[in-house]
Structures are given as structure tokens and as C-alpha cells.
Design goal:
With 335 residues, this protein is α/β, with parallel strands linked by helices. It contains 10 helices and 10 strands.
Length: 335
């Protein structure tokens, strides 16, 4: 039985297929190290609703509908898993959806962008500079405009990473601990990709609630460690204050690595492409180029460099992204 601090999650819709399985992973960069890798398969939360974002959207959609919203507004990259999932839940729920996507439109829709179109999201393309410097203002301006048109907009931040969305991965962390305990597995490390900070922050809160001495390593896929240490720390403090959760975070315990971003956010080179193809070919596990491919590449490098202690157990959080893979076929196969 897991001992926790008092916890009362907000209401949510049941959108994801849960619990997702935990599987032993067959590949290792250092087989003699005694390090065992397990994968938490959050890529199996659904099909069009697959990936980590849907756990967060369960709580956020409930809140939006309870506020009588008729339009969801959010943002991300052109191949954003979060935007695709938001467009899908909006379509399912009879809501309109407005997406602000970082980057130029694709001449031929593919991957998540194709699904955004199929779900009839109203897509706005903005520059990388606009996204990085004024995305909050852009979303707020659009909401004000829609209000003036008689609509009821609801803004969802990048990656659904706010205190309410974090509940998705607080509960995922509790789910994971129960699964590991039942299987008799002691986790020494959890590794996940970090793109907006909410998944990491939720897992970290779960570890505090459970009094679980597991090290959580976040592999940044955009921006640097300094940014994410501040971002995750802020999310954690905001969650604790908003929901009056009786835990005490230690900033030194938040571990963010920024050495595996590669050519840039949602961009890959030969190293990343070869790694993704190798993992698929030898394990049958599909990694997406923007998030999980880089996060697992970082994990493998950490093991090879001895940054993960020998005979440790590592749980890798597979946060999905399969649908975006199809947009990278020219990067993966250049011959």
C-alpha cells in the first residue's frame, strides 16, 4: 500500500486508456552494467488521443466545459502532439478549436498537422520569434476577439502545462508506483522528455506525495536547463499553493539535461535519425523525432558515460508522438 499525503484531485473526464503498461526494454548501450530499463507506455493512451497530453487534457477539458467554453485556444509547433490532441478532444466534444502553430504551413499536410486539418481546427501560423516572445499576448488577444464575437474561449497553455494540467502526471506517477510495487521493481531513476515542463513537474510532485526517493531526469528538447529549472520550479510551487498540497520541494532535486536538443526543437540530424531507426529495428519501439527520440538518446548516452549507477533500474516515460513521425520521412530516409 502506498503511503501518501492527503490528496484530492479535481474532477476530470475519462479520455485516456489507463493504466498504460510498464514493459521491460530489450536494448541497452551497456549490457554488462546491470542497468535495467523499463518503459512506461504512455504512447498507448489512445490513437488520435495518444501520448502524454491527453492525461493533462482530461482535467483541463472538464474545467473548460464546466465554464461553458465553446472554443479551445492553444499553441505548439507545426507537429505538436498537444495541439493534435486538443483539436481531437474539441471535435469530440462539439467545441471549436483555435491553434497557433510555430512555423510555416506545410504544402502537403502530414503527421499531426494533417490531423489538425481533419479535425477542422482553425490554424494560425506565427513565426518562431513571435512564439518565443509574445505567445501569451497572442493567445489573449485572440480570446478577447472571440469574446467580442459572442464566443466563450478557453486558453490552454503550451503543452497543457499549468497546475491543473499537472494533475495528469501527478496521477500518472502514482499509477506508475503502484505498478512497480505490484511487479516488485524498485525504480532508481525516471527519465522523461521536457518540452513545456508539466510532465516532469507532475512526476516530481508525485514523488513528493509518495515520499518516493527516485531521481527524475528530464531531457530538454528545446530551450536550456536554466530555463526549465525556473519553469519546473515555478510550476511545482504554483501547484502546491493552488491545491494546498503538504509537500516540501527541494530545488536541487530537479534535474534537467539540455545536451540532447540536437539541431533544434523538432529538428533532427543524422545522429538522431540513425538512433530512432536503430531502436525501431532492434526493439519494435517507435520513438518520435521531437521528444522521445532525443530523450532516449540522452538516456543511452548517460548510461554509456556512467552517469547512471550500475545495477540501477530506470523507467523511461514514453510520451507518444508516433503520429508526427510520418512528417519526418525525408529526414529518416535520405537515400
Amino acid at each position: 500500500m502506498i503511503k501518501t499525503v492527503k490528496l484530492k484531485p479535481p474532477p476530470r473526464f475519462q479520455l485516456a486508456t489507463l493504466p498504460t503498461p510498464v514493459e521491460a526494454f530489450s536494448l541497452s548501450p551497456a549490457p554488462k552494467s546491470g542497468i535495467e530499463i523499463y518503459i512506461k507506455r504512455d504512447d498507448l493512451t489512445g490513437s488520435e488521443l495518444s501520448g502524454n497530453k491527453i492525461r493533462k487534457l482530461e482535467f483541463i477539458l472538464y474545467d473548460a466545459i464546466s465554464q461553458k467554453a465553446d472554443t479551445l485556444i492553444t499553441c505548439g509547433g507545426v507537429q505538436s502532439n498537444h495541439c493534435r490532441a486538443t483539436a481531437a478532444v474539441a471535435s469530440r466534444s462539439g467545441l471549436a478549436c483555435e491553434l497557433f502553430l510555430k512555423g510555416k504551413p506545410l504544402r502537403v499536410p502530414d503527421g499531426n498537422y494533417l490531423l489538425d486539418k481533419l479535425f477542422k481546427a482553425n490554424i494560425h501560423h506565427i513565426t518562431v520569434k513571435e512564439y518565443e516572445t509574445e505567445i501569451d499576448e497572442i493567445l489573449n488577444r485572440r480570446a478577447e476577439y472571440l469574446l467580442g464575437q459572442g464566443q466563450q474561449p478557453y486558453i490552454i497553455p503550451e503543452g497543457a502545462s499549468n497546475p491543473l494540467g499537472m494533475w495528469g502526471y501527478v496521477m500518472a506517477g502514482i499509477e506508475l508506483k503502484r505498478q512497480l510495487d505490484k511487479a516488485g521493481i524498485r525504480a532508481d531513476y525516471i527519465v522523461c522528455a521536457v518540452g513545456s515542463g508539466g510532465t516532469y513537474a507532475g512526476l516530481y510532485i508525485a514523488s513528493l506525495i509518495l515520499r518516493w526517493p527516485v531521481k527524475i531526469i528530464g531531457m530538454a528538447v528545446c530551450r536550456d536547463s536554466e530555463f526549465f529549472l525556473s519553469r519546473v520550479g515555478g510550476l511545482v510551487e504554483s501547484f502546491i499553493e493552488t491545491y494546498n498540497v503538504k509537500v516540501t520541494p527541494e530545488p536541487a532535486d530537479i534535474l534537467i539535461e539540455d545536451s540532447y536538443i540536437g539541431p533544434g526543437y523538432a529538428q533532427i540530424g543524422k545522429k538522431e535519425a540513425d538512433f530512432i531507426k536503430g531502436v525501431a529495428g532492434y526493439s519494435g519501439i517507435i520513438l518520435d523525432p521531437a521528444y522521445i527520440g532525443k530523450a532516449m538518446l540522452g538516456l543511452f548516452d548517460y548510461i554509456a558515460l556512467g552517469k547512471i549507477k550500475r545495477k540501477s533500474n530506470v523507467v523511461f516515460i514514453h510520451t507518444g508522438g508516433l503520429l508526427s513521425l510520418f512528417a519526418y520521412k525525408n529526414k529518416l530516409f535520405t537515400d
